[in-house]
Amino acid sequence: MHPESLMMTHGYKPELSEGAIKPPVFQTSTFVFKTAEAGKAFFEVAYGLREKADQEELGLIYSRINNPNLEILEDRLALWDKADQCAVFESGMSAISTVLLEFLKPGDMLLYSRPTYGGTDHFINHFLKEIGVESIGFRPDHSEEDIAQLIEESGKADKLSLIYIETPANPTNELIDIVMCRRLADRFSSNAKKVYLATDNTYMGPLWCSPLEHGADIVMYSATKYLGGHSDLIAGAVLGGDEVMQRIKVLRTFLGNMASPHTCWLLLRSLETLKVRMEQQARTAERVAQYLMKHPKILKVYYLGCLPKDSDAYSLYKRQYTSPGAMIAFEVKGKEAEAFKFLNSLKLVKLAVSLGSTESLGQHPATMTHVGLDPEIKEFMGINERLVRLSIGLEHEEDLIMDIENALRQV
Ligand SMILES: *Cc1c(COP(=O)(O)O)cnc(C)c1O
Fold first, then answer.
1. CATH number of the domain at 14-28+63-270, please?
2. If you read the UniProt record, what top EC class would you report for this enzyme, in one word (predicted)?
3. Chain centroid offset of residue 202 CA
4. Which single residue of 83, 176, 346, 409 could bond 239 by disulfide (Cβ 3.0 to 4.6 Å)?
5. Cα 92 to middle of ligand 1, angstroms
6. Cα–ligand 1 centroid distance for 230 (angstroms)
């Protein structure tokens, strides 16, 4: 069946919870074992002392290791990305930093796409650097051969352990080719060392892009965004095959950064409407983008739905995505004062960072989400003082366009 058909029921047995149609919040720290032998068997599997037997399920032990709300959520999330397993975290950053820590050790090298989310960039260039993990950043305009050359020239090609990408790049929707990154990972893998490929799919997933199908080993989400979708929680998720997920789940057990039962419960509710929300948001975004493209006070619109059909970016977009998404960036004619005037004049659209929620949000990347970016990358990406980013929510398109029109009139 399709994932949306299974979001209400998959992984939950009402008869184990007094017949309740919805999973209760299992607000409990620990679980009672039927026998000492059962407890022993659960621990053997949880600590990786032996493989799980056929049909054997890991029993409930302790809520840092497993909890019904966490497990039901992970089973349901795995359906969208067709992943073997999922691990849910207390934030997107927690998911990302756990992946980076598991797959990079002192002396290793990381290849990553720039720009990447500010928190990820900071973790790579401060924490990882201090523990002796070197990194090479590449831009969306670098070709496969340019990137291979960067790796060779570093003199540490044999130390490359992880390729980390975020696509589309926020906020101007530049694309990174996942298949090309897979080829690079394979090219620099050896018998002694496999190079893994991890993708932050927050912007377009899980509906409009399936990185595992394009060759990624690991997919990560800030579940705070579309998955949660109501601006009322912070969470993250990692998905992939059994081998990588086992490693990530063991590290999560010892870092203790899993999501709480209540956060998982909220996410379970959100997942039931994930598809209708995302599809409606994308439909409305298309209307808003069409309106913006014709407006005389707007210089340029960054939206995947308006890429020129004969461009390389367009063919990559068509290969990798099934929708242009619901994120739009655009330049208001003028400078910071004009962009601020526009943002300050919006009434329905709220002035806040974050994205993917039921309410539309607007913000100013150059002074807000992207303020810490390297000036070279800022320049390349066109993140200038005129640029505004919108995340389109579930309001009626006519009301959103009226709000934007009124705000532009003030500029
Ligand atoms: C928000 C976001 C993150 C960080 O997630 P949190 O849930 O805020 O920790 C990471 N990557 C992308 C692309 C994001 O938008």
1. 3.40.640.10
2. lyase
3. 2
4. 83
5. 5
6. 15
Task: Give pLDDT tens digits for 107-163.
Answer: 999 999 998 998 999 999 999 999 999 999 999 999 999 999 999 999 999 999 999
Pocket of ligand 1 (CB under 6 A): 91-93, 117, 119, 166, 170, 200, 202-203, 222, 224-225, 234, 236
Closest C-alpha to ligand 1, atom 4: 92
Span 216-241, pLDDT tens digits? 999 999 999 999 999 999 999 999 99
Atom of ligand 1 nearest to the CA of 236: 7
- Kindly report, as residue ranges, where domains of CATH 3.40.640.10 are found in the chain: 14-28+63-270
pTM: 0.96
Residue 50's pLDDT is: 85
Question: How many CB atoms are located within 10 Å of the residue 53 CB?
Answer: 9
- Take residue 18 and report the two structure tokens written for it: 């007094």
CATH 3.90.1150.10 maps onto the chain at 274-409
Helix (H) / strand (E) element for 381: namely helix 375-381
202, 209, 238, 373: residue to mutate for ligand 1 pocket, most atoms within 8 A of CB: 202
Q: How much is the pLDDT for 166?
A: 97
How does the average pLDDT of the chain come out, rounded?
A: 96
At 199, give phi and psi (nearest 5°). Answer: -125, 130
Distance 350 CA to ligand 1 centre (A): 19
Q: Which atom of ligand 1 is nearest to the CA of 120?
A: 10
DSSP 212: G
274-409: CATH homologous superfamily? Aspartate Aminotransferase, domain 1 (3.90.1150.10)
Residue pair 390/360 in contact by the 8 Å Cβ criterion: yes
In sequence order, the β-bridge partners of residue 137 are: 112
**Atom 13 in ligand 1: residue holding the nearest Cα:** 202
Q: How far apart are CA 4 and CA 278, in angstroms?
A: 12
Q: Among 144-148, 370-374, 387-391, whose mean pLDDT is lowest? A: 370-374
Q: What is residue 401's predicted lDDT score, i.e. its pLDDT?
A: 98
The Cβ of residue 121 has, within 10 Å, a number of other Cβ atoms equal to 21
User: 3-class SS at 300?
Assistant: strand
CA–CA gap between residue 400 and residue 229 (Å, rounded): 18
Backbone angles phi, psi at 3, to 5 degrees: -55, -40
Specify burial of residue 89 (Cβ count, 10 A radius: 0-12, 13-18, 19+). Answer: buried
